[in-house]
Amino acid sequence: xxxxxxxxxxxxxxxxxxxxxxxxxxxxxxxxxxxxxxxxxxxxxxxxxxxxxxxxxxxxxxxxxxxxxxxxxxxxxxxxxxxxxxxxxxxxxxxxxxxxxxxxxxxxxxxxxxxxxxxxxxxxxxxxxxxxxxxxxxxxxxxxxxxxxxxxxxxxxxxxxxxxxxxxxxxxxxxxxxxxxxxxxxxxxxxxxxxxxxxxxxxxxxxxxxxxxxxxxxxxxxxxxxxxxxxxxxxxxxxxxxxxxxxxxxxxxxxxxxxxxxxxxxxxxxxxxxxxxxxxxxxxxxxxxxxxxxxxxxxxxxxxxxxxxxxxxxxxxxxxxxxxxxxxxx
Length: 330
What we know:
The chain crosses the membrane at residues 26-47, 107-126, 133-151, 171-193, 224-247, 253-272, 279-297, 303-323. It is found in: Cell membrane. One of its GO terms (molecular function) is transmembrane transporter activity. This is Autoinducer 2 import system permease protein LsrD. The chain contains 16 helices and two strands. A two-stranded antiparallel sheet has the order 1-2. Strand 1 (170-172) and strand 2 (175-176) form a beta hairpin. With 330 residues, it is mainly α. The longest helix has 28 residues, at 302-329. It has helices spanning 3-6, 16-21, 24-42, 49-56, 60-74, 82-97, 103-127, 132-151, 165-168, 177-194, 197-207, 209-214, 219-245, 256-266, 278-297, 302-329; strands at 170-172, 175-176.
């Protein structure tokens, strides 16, 4: 009997329910429920509705960037300058307040600065063919450096009263404006990545950019748009964060790029590109947000949280590879 005849060939594919139960997203959902239960035992204040609402502030701003970052990583690129874009956009809004500009103008400036930074990254990566990791490491220093030059050790804190709504307002009961915006962004990016031709082009580029080019996909244009989206969502996060804090310092959002990338990779997006879902990123955002909020309730120092996030990022990348290596040897 030949090797082909001996091979076990399934007579039917797994049902959608079976595939769903075995998926990475199902595992994340179980982890999220587990973390929720542990937090409820760890602190008697956790199950308070307003505390749960406060917990969402731990991840909504970062998650909105993670949605755009997920698409960028699926396409095989990465943007490490997102936290610095927040600093620059926040600084630009702070400078605008000194000229007496109102809330609509500040919002427009925050979005435009984010778009401009995304366009700058996109032009260097998609236009000139430079590696995205090198370009965005450079712009990470460039954008935050400009903020330090403008502000020094000073801070802008004279924002108009109406501006506070974006980071401190509530649309209904304990549902904050930020959480509502996070939900809308999650649905919009899910549709864009998984229900449109643009999203399918992103997956094709991530798997094989040369084949995508020969298939008629405008690879450079898609990659440029993805950097624009990442810059735009960083601008949105800058508006929400600046509004919530009521002040701008050059160190604002320092180190957020690590948490955003961790959120994306924990959500099941391959760091090598070509695969991943937006549902996974949403669930990863909840998991990370509840873990950090639980640490906060237990008065765990911030440096311990950073160590945890770093180890989590390494573990999520290394453990699946170790499992595959062990399976091959077996």
